[in-house]
Design goal:
The structure is a single chain. This protein has one domain: Rossmann fold (3-Layer(aba) Sandwich), CATH 3.40.50. The protein is built from 8 helices and 5 strands. It is globular and about 55 Å long.
Length: 220
Amino acid sequence: MPFMTSHSFPGRLIVVEGIDGSGKSTQIELLENYLRIKGFGVLRNAWNSSQEISPIIKKAKKKQLLTPYGFSLLHAADFSYRYTHEILPALNAGKIVLSDRYIYTAIARDAARGIPRDWLVNNFRFAIRPDLTFFFRMDPALAYDRITQVRDIKYYEAGLDMELSMNPRESYILFQSRVLEGYENLAKEHGFSVLDGAKPVEETQRVVRRLVNPLIQSLL
């Protein structure tokens, strides 16, 4: 059963989710540009980006010090800070908040590391339900190939801490397949708008805008 409640803020909360390499960040950037051209006030908020917590996470990741629970708790703290100091004030001010990942990332990814789902859900019961959540479905093998065309795969991103395989590509596919399964369950539970991340960028963006437009009409 869904565990979040709807909000009554004047703004709108739009979320993009998907495994790494699924194109979600590209789509939310395009959507942000579209909304700003139309004159809307927009806040784009990204996972693991708070000034207070993010530097700690990045330092621990670089040294490969994080256990599954440590990884989960630090990201929960980062989200809580951004939620309190960035997301809620923007919604209260009537802005459109575009969240590049939300609590669903933590639930899908941390459950893939073996943390009980109930424990994860309880950590985020304070979070409001987004007005619209896009889930970009992507085959992990294709996502890996996309990422490695522009940069190296990261240690935790590939799930190398799980010791599923010593080969980064194989580890990524195995780990992200678990994460993808978690997303699929959340999509059914929370009614995500599911899009094919392998489709051309322009085609996908047209669908995104078509689904967003009815949601923002009342803000004009």
